[in-house]
Structure formats: structure tokens, C-alpha cells
Amino acid sequence: MTDKLEISIDIKALAAEVAKHIDGERVNTPRYYTAIDSPLGKRLFIKCAKEGCFPSFKVDGRGKLLALREDVEAWIERQDRPPAGEPEADEVGRALGKVISAGKVRLTKKAG
User: Is 20 a member of any domain?
Assistant: First the structure.
């Protein structure tokens, strides 16, 4: 007499769980930005982290900065930005300064 052992496996659930481990993350694990992968760029990320724009902390002996992705993204959303397609006043002023300094436009006083 031989005993049979029957095992039932949900392949889709198993594949999803394996994929989580392959990617190196768990579902409920917070995700972090570093200066290298931040949408702010390296210098601005470091500057903002040091100024306390969003919570951050150092890891490793090298002082690698980490910040929660949602904190960084929330800070970005809170920033005032001009509407898309409209140049900022500083951009217009810089462009005008370049044209004037190139001698292409001359400013004169209006009589009146």
C-alpha cells in the first residue's frame, strides 16, 4: 500500500510572490529615492534633504542619503510652478538681456 500526497499550488500567486522577491522588494516595504535616482537630480536632492524640505536620513558609512519616494513627490507637488507653456519672468528677462548684449536691439527713451 502506497500513500499518495497531493499538493495543490496556485501558480499565479506563486509567480507573483517570486517576482516580488526577484525585484528585491516586498509589497508593504517603503520605497526610497537616493540622490542618483531622484527626479530632482543629484545636487537639488542633496540640498533639499539637508535643508529639511522632506524627511531624509543617511545610511552606510559613506553618508548615502535616502528619502521616502512619497515625501519627495509630495514636496515636488507643493512647489509653485508656472503654467505649462508660459515662460517665467526670469526666462524672458534673460532672453532679452542676451539679445540686447548681442547688439541686435537698442533701447531708447520714449519721447513724451
Answer: no
